[in-house]
Design goal:
Layout (H helix, E strand, L loop, with lengths): L4 E6 L14 H16 L3 E6 L7 H6 L4 H25 L4 E5 L8 E2 L2 H9 L3 E5 L9 H11 L4 E6 L4 E2 L11 E2 L1 E3 H7 L6 H9 L4 E5 L5 H6 L6 E4 L1
Parallel strand pairs: 1-2, 1-6, 2-5, 3-4, 3-5, 6-10, 9-11
Antiparallel strand pairs: 7-8, 10-11
Helix pairs in contact: 1-3, 5-7
Length: about 240
């Protein structure tokens, strides 16, 4: 396997499937099966999920809500998504631990780096909920931070599109896909991969990011095997 320890970043919206909001049981089951394939191949996997399918702090703030309150609601939404994915994984026999950056001891372990790494070494999937535990930071930032802390080899950002394009492929038919691109090129071309804080943190720590289509069956396993899937961003 090309990668031995990965961090998978999923958006909350990805869990909606064809629904308007919430969690699509079919979609989350598909993701669980894809993750199981990777675990069975011997690769260690940690996961960060967004909360946009339930609540997004920035949207709440734009409607007059206090931003800090909104972000805390968003953090709780990521824990809900984490619980749902944990349940889907354990349903198919994948040992999973949910760790939260905000203390909710009845439903999740507190985030402890050494404990998370020990879980990974034992072959358990570790889901990180609660973002960074701080308002004003996105789950993209949480994903990069956790990936650095657990010494992941790569961040895999699962999206609805199959990589990074010159423009939004859903809006511009002439958009062309990059197979590889450097951090500096992404900045120079003004491409949207992650929010600026997360992207800069990844660049400073020379942690590659692969953007790929999570909804295509087998893609996750192909990436860890080293096949050319999606777009890789590196130094």
């Amino acid at each position: 396997m090309k990668y031995q320890r990965i961090l998978l970043k999923l958006s909350g919206e990805a869990l909606m499937g064809d629904l308007q909001y919430g969690i699509d049981p079919t979609r989350i089951s598909q993701y669980a099966e894809a993750i199981k394939e990777v675990v069975e191949s011997g690769v260690e996997i940690a996961i960060v999920i967004g909360g946009g399918n339930i609540f997004r702090g920035v949207s709440g703030a734009s409607n007059g809500m206090d931003r800090v309150q909104g972000d805390h609601m968003g953090m709780l939404a990521t824990v809900i998504n984490g619980l749902a994915l944990q349940s889907a994984l354990e349903e198919i026999g994948v040992p999973t631990r949910l760790q939260s950056a905000i203390h909710i001891n009845q439903v999740a372990e507190p985030f402890i780096r050494r404990k998370a790494m020990r879980h990974l070494e034992k072959g358990r999937v570790v889901i990180f909920g609660g973002g960074t535990g701080n308002p004003y930071f996105t789950t993209d930032s949480a994903a990069v931070l956790r990936a650095i802390e657990i010494q992941a080899d790569v961040i895999l950002k699962g999206t609805r599109v199959d990589g990074i394009y010159t423009a939004d492929p859903e809006k511009d038919a002439a958009a062309t896909k990059f197979d590889t691109i450097t951090f500096n090129e992404v900045i120079r071309k003004g491409l949207k991969v992650m929010d600026t804080t997360a992207f800069t943190l990844s660049q400073e720590n020379e942690l590659p990011i692969i953007v790929f289509d999570m909804n295509t069956q087998g893609n996750l396993l192909r990436i860890v095997r080293g096949e050319a899937v999606g777009t890789i961003v590196n130094a």
